[in-house]
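@here heads up, posting the sequence + SMILES for the zinc ion run so it's all in one place. Ping me if the SMILES looks off, I pulled it from an old spreadsheet.
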Amino acid sequence: MGLPMLALAGFVVYLSFAGADIADERERRQFEESLKIEEAKRISAAVVEVTLARQGQAKAEVERLEKEGLGATSTGNATSRPTSSSSVSSTAGSGTRPQARKGAAGAVNGKLASGQSLFGALTAHELSISQIQPAINSLSTIFDFRKSRPKDRYEAHYDARGNILELRYQRNLEVVYVAKRGKEGKYAASKQDVPVKSKVVSIGGTVRGTLSRAIIDAGENQKLVSKFIDIFAYDIDFGSDTKPGDTFRLVFEKVYIEGKMVRYGNILAAEYKGVKKSMRAYRGGDGGYFDETGQSLRRMFLRNPVKFARITSKFGKRLHPVLKTWKQHNGVDYAAATGTPINPIANGTVLFAGEKGANGNLIAIQHPNGWVSYYAHLSRFGKIKKGSKVTQSMVVGYVGSTGRSTGPHLHLGVKRENGEFVDPLTIHSTRSVGLKGDKLRQHKRRVKEMIRKLDMTRIRPPSKGPEEPMPVGGDDMGGFEDKPATSGKPQKTTPHN
Ligand SMILES: [Zn+2]
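bot reply: prediction finished. Complex structure tokens:
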């Protein structure tokens, strides 16, 4: 095939990618959205149950009211008791704001609205400011209210005089901060752990398209997918190394409150058997992951800076789809949806974070031994600035399509201490230190049990139904300077693995 034909073929491929991009992106969003809704439903159901169970008096109160036909169903989540039906009032414009009734004991509860403080929320319930203040002051000795977020839960019980007897504040499902009124109106604050139960479960499945899809088909969600990918992130690129027929098995914990699952605990053991790569990982006592022999799976460089991405362009000379000229591509392109979080490939210090010509929004990170990594075309930055220390687990920025780019993707470039760009996919870095002595002996005991569990786990056959699509994006980035990349010596396009 002559060069013009090749160019034409490249152009056609490019066009069909661009077309697929829009539809794929929409479907993917819908899919993600449905996941989020499901998750939210599950969590809110759990919260309601927990709150109800902890209300004690309040719950009994509600039941009593319901018997009397005065159930607070029309006033949202209030459980206050009116002294007489005529005293029920509502503020202008909002008929649902539950209020503390004067002259009667009761309770109010709710979730913080966006931008609302606990103080604001309680005053909106018309609790007296002179009562709210000391209760909140007491809580603030054990909880930093600057960390308050919308949807944090609160609950206040008051007596007939309007004294707040107990104020409860729940930052998450598992911890409640409580201020209790003692004698002479003094409050004592305490932190209470909600009792949780953790159950060890295992799943196994077969990949047909993406790993995400396969794990979700096994009845779990994206959060577990993330945890799984994190474990193998140094060795397996789940965007490009996964092939139909690959299998996985997982032994992990599910955390329950009052019978409802609220989150995943730790993954205790994980297995991936692939055409390209097969591995097993076991959690060590310190939280890291190791192989059977106690060798750490952690390396200096992460395999991939984005979890859910596909490599659309590798390092080296390539025929540019639009310009139809041969250009050096000094990095790897990962196609991912706009907003996908980016982790640095190694710990380091931010050298640059800002806009830079064709790179669009760019981050440069300095690593040990003179290595520098570059992240281009970002939609926005994480909480970093020049000089920030970053770790592999931090989000430094988000995928975008700023600068010279044809669609949302991350361009990753890696430079050695001698100033040469290298293929990020061929960097081999040594593993972190493994387990020794007692720790190794303990690990080997745990591994024995985990091998048994993994081996017993049934691998589900691949599911039918639509596959989750991935977005596409690309660029013609030769380097990270404002001037185009110099031709230099030819680089071989070594595919990884
Ligand atoms: Zn690129």
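MO: The mean pLDDT is 78.
MO: One more: The radius of gyration is 28 Å.
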